[in-house]
Structures are given as C-alpha cells and as structure tokens.
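pls ignore typos typing on phone
nicotinamide-adenine-dinucleotide + seq
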Amino acid sequence: MSAAGERRVRVGLGARSYDVVIGSGLLGRAGALLAPLLDAQRRVVVVADATVATLHLDRLRAGLGRNALDVVTVPGGEATKSWAQLEQLVDRLLAMTIDRHTLLVALGGGVIGDLAGFAAAILLRGLDVVQLPTTLLAQVDSSVGGKTGINTAAGKNMVGSFHQPKRVLADIDCLATLPPRELRAGYAEMVKHAAIADRPMFEWFEAQGPAVLAGDAAARAIAVEHSCVTKARIVGADEREGGVRAHLNFGHTFGHALEAETGFGDRLLHGEAVGLGMVLAMRLSERVLGCPADETARLAAHLSASGLPTRLGEIAGGRIDARAAMTHMAVDKKARAGRPSFILARRLGEVCRVDDVDPALVAAVFEAAA
Ligand SMILES: NC(=O)c1ccc[n+]([C@@H]2O[C@H](COP(=O)([O-])OP(=O)(O)OC[C@H]3O[C@@H](n4cnc5c(N)ncnc54)[C@H](O)[C@@H]3O)[C@@H](O)[C@H]2O)c1
Ligand SMILES: [Zn+2]
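k done
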C-alpha cells in the first residue's frame, strides 16, 4: 500500500502490462494517478454512464484538472451494449475529430467498460483506454483483463475484442452510491474468485463479508485487491482463454442459462445468476468429481447470508423451467459442438474444466434446485 493509501495490482502481460489502482478518493487524484498517460497535448475524452456522470463526474473533472475535457454520456444498462449504441458512440467520437493519440476514459460499470473499451479497440485501429469502474462487478471483474464487446441478436458478448486498458482506477468511494442489489451481485463475483483459486480468501469472506457489504472502506479495499490479484494472475497466465482463464467461468454455464431463461433483465442480475450458478456447479461437482456436499452447503450458506439467491424458487416472476434453461447451454459461446463445458470444483478453492458431462446429471441438478 502506498502513502496515499492506495493498493496496486499489476496485470503482467509483457509490453501491455498495467496497474489496477484500488482505494478511496482516486477520482479526485486522477490527474496524478494517470500522469504518465497525460501529456499536455493529449486529448482526453470521458465516456460516462449517464447515471454515474451525475454522481461522480465532478470529482473526476476536478481530479483531472483539465480546462477542456470532452465528455460523452451514454445510458446505463445492458441495452447499451448494442450495435446501435456502438455506432452512435463511434460517430460522436469521430465527429469530435479525435486522433490516434486521444485517450478514452471509461467511467461506469461493466456495460460502459465493455462498450467504450470496444470503441477504443476499433476507432482509428485502436486508441488507448483507461478504465474507471464504478460498480463492484466492474472493479473486480470486467475492467481487468481486456475483454470488450457488445451483445447481438445471437446472444451476449457475441461481438468484441481483447483490448487491454492502459490503467484501471478502482475508486471504492463510487460504491457508496451503488444500489445494494448491484453491490451484492458484484460480491458474488468476488466470492467466485475466492472459490476458484483462493480458499483462504473464501474463509476471509465468511468472516468479513458483512463488513464488505456494509461499507467498511478498509474491508472493501482488501476484498477488491484480493479479487483483482486472482483475476490478474489468471489473465497474466492465459490472456486469450486457451486454458486457465476458463476457470473464471465457474458458475457461468448454469448462470448464463438462467439469465437467458429470465430474459437478461431485472429478474436476475448477472452476479445473482453467477451465485446461483456456482451452487448448481457445486452440486454437479459432487456427482462428477466427488466434491464433498459440505463444501456446497458452505458456499450456499455464505451466499445466502450475503443476501443472494441460492435456490431457483427465490427468483422473482414465476417458476423457472429447468428443461428450457438447459437448452440455452448448448448455444452458450463456450460450448463446443453443442456440448456445454463446465468448470467444476474438487473443493472450494480448486477447480478444473470438464467437457463431457452427461446431460442427465445436469438435468438432475436443475431439478434438485427448484
Ligand atoms: N469484460 C469482461 O471481462 C466482463 C466481465 C464480467 C462482466 N462483464 C459485463 O459487465 C456488464 C455488467 O456490468 P455491471 O454489473 O457493472 O452493470 P452496469 O454497467 O449496467 O451497472 C449496473 C447499474 O448500476 C449503475 N451504476 C454504475 N455505477 C454506479 C454507481 N457508482 N452508483 C450508482 N449507480 C451506478 C448503472 O447505471 C447501471 O444501472 C455485463 O454486460 C457483462 O457482460 C464483462
Ligand atoms: Zn461474470
């Protein structure tokens, strides 16, 4: 930790390595924290979530200390990750006569990070981008690792590219304005990072999770840092998901199926789906890998105590049809030849990829979770 109280996590990718800076008050110190990227001639354009702009843009403006700061706002929410919004954003940025040296700054949650990151990847064959994630999910997951993209009629994140940011500033003060349900959804992804590769961190969450969720700044900084360390280590080892990066999809094969079945909307947030998906993946792990049932119970108890759903019956808006949910798995982006692949656990903190799972076992797991 530095004198100013911020924590730094390095994402090691050779010439494309960068720091994730984590702490309080970072937006207000953005000029100093981004100094190596901000020479006087460099144009900076902020692409901001409209909601986040009303709450946090003034602090960023003051922190950057620039007279002429261009800001483009886009609506928040998943619908923004579309061809139409990408086209609009790209056209608006080009109309500002940006050049190859322009720095894009993405201020918002995962939606803005993915959209602005993808715009940066394709504008003028590639602009530098800095990520300023403002949701917990974006701070521990989407802003780190360089995946960018949009959704299409065929599904989520079907068009995109790898485009690593030059730096990430995760200002935990932004989390103060985040709706509690969004906070809990991001918390599920932090628990995921612990569950795949950091058992001591899972135990830490069991003890300190309530403090993290209640807003304890020190606990939040530790939690975000540890989560980013795990993500950075995995991305550093396997940037393009040829191997170990797939472990980050723990809970996601089930989770995506549930999101698809509930319409990718307010009924079930992504992080909530991942939490539920992890519980289902643990049940499948019991059957396929002999993972002890106690481990499943322990994960479910922690998620439930954290205010996250762990049974299908807790999803608002009616019963989930397990068979219909299963059909979404075959078209999952990560499926091969129509067979979904699963990340399964031997125990909490130790996972592996399993490709050939008997669909009858998957169906049994769904039925048992009703
Ligand atoms: N690129 C990746 O590696 C990766 C990884 C995981 C998820 N994702 C993507 O991230 C997206 C989800 O991200 P998200 O959960 O951050 O959603 P989001 O960006 O839609 O933000 C959630 C909501 O919170 C609001 N908001 C954001 N910050 C706020 C703040 N500080 N205070 C008050 N309100 C705030 C937004 O306006 C929005 O309504 C999905 O599209 C998902 O596919 C990408
Ligand atoms: Zn996720």
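The two ends are 45 Å apart (CA to CA). Residues 146 and 163 are 5 Å apart (CA to CA). more later
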